[in-house]
Amino acid sequence: MLRAAVLVLLLLLVAGGGAPVSAAPEGEMTWAVHVSLAPTWFDPAETPAVITPFMMLYAMHDALVKPMPDKAMAPSLAESWTMSKDGLVYEFVLRKGVKFHNGDPVTAEDVKFSLERYKGAAAGTLKARVAGVEVVDPLRVRIRLKQPWPDFMTFYGTPATGAAWIVPKKYVERVGDDGFKKAPVGAGPYKFVSFNPGVELVLEANEQYWRKTPSVKRLVFRSVPDDTTRLAMLKRGEADVAYSLRGALAEEVKRTPGLTLKASSPTFTEWVVFTEQWDPKSPWHDKRVRVAANLAIDRKALNDAEYLGFAKVTASIIPHTFEFYWPAPPYPYDPARAKQLLAEAGYPRGFDAGELVTDAVYAGTGEAVVNNLVAVGIKVRLRPLERAAFYKGDQEKAFKKLVRPGSAAAGNAATRIEAFVITGGIRSYGGYPDIDGLFREQAVELDPKKREAMLHKIQQLMHERAMYAPIVEPAFLSGVGPRIEHSALGMIPGHAFSYPYEEIRLKPR
């Protein structure tokens, strides 16, 4: 009898594509999301250097390698990988029996197709360094590099880019890129059901997911850009998790019986870019003006007011937990010195600085910065934009004067610098030749100590030139309702959202 029972269990595992046998998913969980969901985030190929799309990718898709709670680069669709001794070849062995939501098997052809199709944050970097992708057999793929690249797995195997997330070749070729965004098919724990632009995304459990069967049957993501409305939905039970509640609203969550405030610490920094620092005719070309702006910002007061003190005041755009981070000396809050520097630069009465453009979700941060700048004579107006529009404009370098970007993308100091600092970076408004040269050198340096020295030097130059006005490493504050047993918020170190989705649980009824 025992042998027969074991045989039945093995047959069930094989029939389920390797997914562990567990109870059928039940119930529905709703998120009140702080941004309008964009269809471009349903396609891994278009992932920018930010974490927001991974809210969707971790649900609908899967990667060869990705961060998980127990490991920063956990085997996923690839059960293992190796690197050649010369550092030029990476070979991935795919997990057997894994299928996309439409029933197509996940193969090496899909891996090759996905990387060659990728056009997101690090597309230029990957294309410049990857010599080719070879299908060895249906479950084995090789990626050949043009030269040893110590950061290959950081760019490929973390949410620094999204390049390792796999889509089904046959399906994409049949429906096209636009068709894929309208009805995405992946290999993740949840399947696409419907999307009402500006309103909601509905997903349903993939009961054959290789890692484990999800506990919750249906996930609903509602776009609710207004934070007071998100809190009201949470209090009325219309949402189980309300993302991004700050300031007085976060305090209200803490005071409300049955609700829980959850603070996670993503690899997130936000800062101000002086887009005209390379224009000799602009006030921002003068380093003294840029330093004055830094001295004008009261970062501690902003942290206390917006993030209830959970954020970390910083003088760098690189998260302090990143490899190769250099701790830049903090800027004191010194408005008197800021005014003095403006006068020395020829602006004793200040000047009109135009607009500060920001993602509307962080309009509160932008408003605090604007008030601080105005107080020392830098007259600036806030222009908040919906997130997808902000990202699009920022990537197109469409904004002038001042911009408040932010990024919670994973990686290391090199990945953040590649996207935001060097000339031609996907979110960079300019650059300096010596920094560009150092970046090129470190990218091919195999000695970690030498790489660290070069990346530290880049960060020192960024600070010495006051290229940016770093603000804080924000905390991500979310409200959790009484029906939730496990929200998965912050479960993966450095990530803000409720994933892995297969780990979330509702309380038993």
Structure in words:
- This protein is α+β, with helices and mostly antiparallel strands.
- The protein folds into three domains: 22-37 and 197-265 and 478-509, Periplasmic binding protein-like II (D-Maltodextrin-Binding Protein, domain 2, 3-Layer(aba) Sandwich); 46-176, Alpha-Beta Complex (Dipeptide-binding Protein, domain 1), CATH 3.90.76.10; 269-473, Dipeptide-binding Protein, Domain 3 (Dipeptide-binding Protein, domain 3, Roll), CATH 3.10.105.10.
- The chain has 16 helices and 24 strands.
- A seven-stranded mixed beta sheet has the order 10-11-12-1-13-22-14, covered by helices on one side. Strands 15, 16, 17, 18, 19, 20 and 21 form a seven-stranded mixed beta sheet that branches. Strands 5-6-8-7 form a four-stranded antiparallel beta sheet.
- The chain is globular.
- 50% of the residues are buried.
- The model is unreliable at 1-19 (pLDDT under 50).
